[in-house]
Amino acid sequence: MPDRVVRQDILTSDPVNKLSWAAEVFYRRLMSLADDFGRYEARPSLLRASLYPLKLDRVSEPDVIKWMGECSEAGLVRVYTVNKKEYLEILKFGQRLRAMKSRYPVPDGEHSPSSADICQHLLSSAGRRRLKRNESESETETETKEPACAAHSPDVVVDFEKFVAWIAKHAPRVADMKEPFTIDQFVEIKVSFSAAQISQILADMHNWEPLIRKNRSAYLTAIKWLKKENDGTHQKPSSSSNNKPGTSEARINRAKEWGRKQV
Hints:
single chain; mainly alpha; Arc Repressor Mutant, subunit A; 2 domains; three-stranded antiparallel sheet
């Protein structure tokens, strides 16, 4: 089952507020079940079994049909038919896209997002995080720093997303820099350096206490440190107790996995 983020906005949502208690529980459970595009099969029997595996004695198919109707009337979910089979889609799902393609067919007249759409979704999310850290930076200024994604293949987009996710988890202070990696910079750096070198330098950057105060660009800082590493002039920073995510050798070894999968 995929991980889902239920945002605070749901608590003040007028459409959600229109639901009965039981329908809201149905809606929230449905968010945990749908694929990355908010889609799932609309068969009441399947929804009942999948959403309420421990409550089958208390939830009936008519209940599911009723709650689905409430969600549809509130504008939260729509049901559509493809090849005589019914599917549902959570509207304005707003989850992070990890899969390149939905497991379920799109409604007639629509199309699945391209690799460029998914890349832009990822980058715009990063832009919103930077805006929260620095409210004086306008959204327009943030967007001008982000590269066009259409020139990159779906495989590169997926690899870049894995790279960004690894940084966020294992070197979060690098992710917090004023100018995080762009997809173009990711492509450039992996051509010149191995995954082991890159992951180690990112961990070193994370563990360097003045990183965010003295440096702006994650890419330029990494390139500078990598060149010093090749020249033998790079001094490994000492780890501090506050910067644990980048210090584990096992974590660095796991980071090499994204390098082995590069094309």
